[in-house]
Amino acid sequence: MTVPSRLVDRSPQVPPQALIAGLVPPPLFGGVRFETYRPDPAEPTQAAALGALRGFAVSLQRPAPRGRWRRRRATGGAPRGVYLDGGFGVGKTHLLASLWHAAPGPKAYATFVELTHLAGALGFAAVVEALGGMRLLAIDEFELDDPGDTVLVSTLLARLAERGVALAATSNTLPDRLGEERFAAEDFLREIQGLAARFTAVRVDGPDYRHRGLPQAPAPLRDDEVRERAQATPGATLDSFDELTTHLARLHPSRYGALVDGVTAVHLTGVHTAVDQAAALRLVVFADRLYDREIPVVGSGAPFDRLFDADMLSGGYRKKYRRAISRLVALNRTGVGVG
């Protein structure tokens, strides 16, 4: 038996250079390539999307323009952005990460949320300078549920496009009702306004799993069972849920990834429904960082599919909460050994 460490005892400091260097596909997509994407023969848009992304990658291989010519090229010519539009489980992130791997550097890959946190941690001007020399910026899970964040990222993309940075983006869709409230290409292009002409929208169709609803979480363990599992797992952490949520409030979300670096499994006692939206949104970001790193989660108290209440799951941030539940349940199933 080992004495597990506690996440609440960690307060990682992440220098700006490390934040920028960390803008790469998560480990889950570290090994994907165009060659590993398997289009469904029954869905011709998947093969077409693969071809479009391969072509976009080839266009990025041309020598990068410099100085004024780089800025002049950025204002005209062929579209320098691609947007993948489609539902869950059709391989949009696989394609986006494959594009990033195929593109020449310097390049960056981030989720929409990571970009907003980066701007909060470093400042808008510093982010423009840090990313302005990139050949490609790939953005996964573009979101429109916060008008302020949408304006922030749209303005950031405009500044980067002016500098000749090629852009690629995906979005997520709501998982509740088929054909309703789907994040569609027209929504994306409308919100980025002046940037719309720079993007080519690429549709990726496939089986739509949104009608399945949220996954059911495994039954929670007892507190003593959680502690025993943590003690028996080298590199695991053990925290009370309330102490962890308090600790997350003290850390900037850009540091959540560093918080769990090197952790083999997260164990939580006393899990319960989030008490307010601020705490709930921090848990969403924490869940994303765990999922990126494929870190199993084990808990006692409430099951992870009850982490957010009915109002949250029907409100403006419902897409975030549903994604977090889906990911935490998957990690929890791994943690307790449920297939």
Structural descriptors:
single chain; ATP-binding; ATPase_AFG1-like; Rossmann fold; 2 domains; five-stranded parallel beta sheet; 339 residues; three-stranded parallel beta sheet; cell division; alpha/beta; nucleotide-binding; Cell division protein ZapE
Average pLDDT works out at 85
- Fourth-tier CATH superfamily name of the largest domain: P-loop containing nucleotide triphosphate hydrolases
The helix tally amounts to 14
Q: Strand tally, please?
A: 8
What structural class should be given to the helix and strand makeup? alpha/beta
Strand order of the largest sheet: 2-3-4-1-5
Helix and strand string, N-terminal first?
Answer: HHHEHEHHEHEHEHEHHEHEHH
- The CATH topology of the largest domain corresponds to Rossmann fold
* The CATH C-level class name of the largest domain: Alpha Beta
- How many domains comprise the coordinates? 2
Instruction: Provide the helix percentage.
Output: 40-55%
User: What distance lies between the first and last C-alpha atoms, to the nearest angstrom?
Assistant: 26 Å
% residues in beta strands:
5-15%
**Judging from the principal axes of the Cα atoms, what is the shape?**
globular
List the uncertain runs.
67-78, 173-183, 208-212
Radius of gyration using CA atoms only: 20 Å
